[in-house]
């Protein structure tokens, strides 16, 4: 047969669209033509495939070979189409029956020796194959990672000859190495942080409702330590959340260790990071730090040192939970439902009351953060210096395990009530699940107008109050809950103080 059809998958954001590899061998001068909007890395597959077939003992046809990667309007990149192209030529030249390809999809880059090298994005490929009802053949290392996708038949191969023998039903493919057993990771414990009871209380509220957090305080007060201990008190990822996170890491060329499969990601980019590094981008759109923090924490230390334009690109993803990347030839959408945790000093000298910085210098330093950006952070607290003698005291601090129990109980209340964390509630859902007494609603609105806060802040305070009530296992939001939520606006109070 001179025509063969092999199925594969492209990479487009978090999706793995189907690519039909059509191979036609016809009479004419020997030529190898590749069509279907291939990029340079795909065009180079002609030489890789030819050498891989010859070195594996297959006859390479001395005729005109035309390979079409359909659909023609979908850009193709990477070496993932080497294996399906080689199999298509083998079938079209009569060295393998076409029916042996039925029910399978193939992805893999070929070495000149015929060995199969790893690709990027095996998790979306496995998910797409499962949904299409086909089995998938991947490079061995990719197959090991793809085993984490439930209800999909994954096969791993190390050489083109192994795939050929498998399709001929002569011998099975090598067994995929078993995934190591999942173990509980030992995360930094909250008991390591001396004092700071107020900050620990806010960290618990942050974990319970998935709220954003900003910590303001002098250097050395424990802001980074507190942020690093937030994952240890948060609920573990559910299986769908863990799979979504693994898919993002897969297309970014990163691997999620099975030991932290259900651990929420914690990303801490340096303040020299660009907007593209945070949000994602490139000629072939790749996920940025906010997408790698999906269902986890993005920690920005020394917040004012980030360029203001870089921080402002976070405003829309903080609200929508997704990021849209548009380039001239490519568009992509990546999930970015993350918790922002930020830390900053109150002045360029480290403390706004040390006499070394004037109010004007402090204002100029803090004005690197835009008002709309600060408005999106629900919890803003001051982390003060520890009182004298605290560091030398041998007091038993509360552990992350005990705090986590309260957080899990509060989160379960939220899931039973509304199916999501409080921070993810929409405006209409706030009215349904966070009702206020008439007098409390009037009190909150009067306070918002008195301090000239936005309507967004009004709703965020209600969400924080709802999380406080859930931690106390109270069905109704009270005035005390609202007042506590209002007290967590430290940066706004500092700015107001400096202006006056």
UniProtKB/TrEMBL annotation:
UniProt domain AAA+ ATPase: residue ranges: 209-387
Keywords associated with the record: ATP-binding, Nucleotide-binding
Record's InterPro entries? Answer: AAA+_ATPase, CHLI-like, MCM_dom, Mg_chelat-rel, Mg_chelat-rel_C, Mg_chelatse_chII-like_cat_dom, P-loop_NTPase, Ribosomal_Su5_D2-typ_SF
Report any Pfam family annotated for this entry.
Answer: ChlI
The family this protein is said to belong to:
Belongs to the Mg-chelatase subunits D/I family. ComM subfamily.
Q: What is this protein called?
A: YifB family Mg chelatase-like AAA ATPase
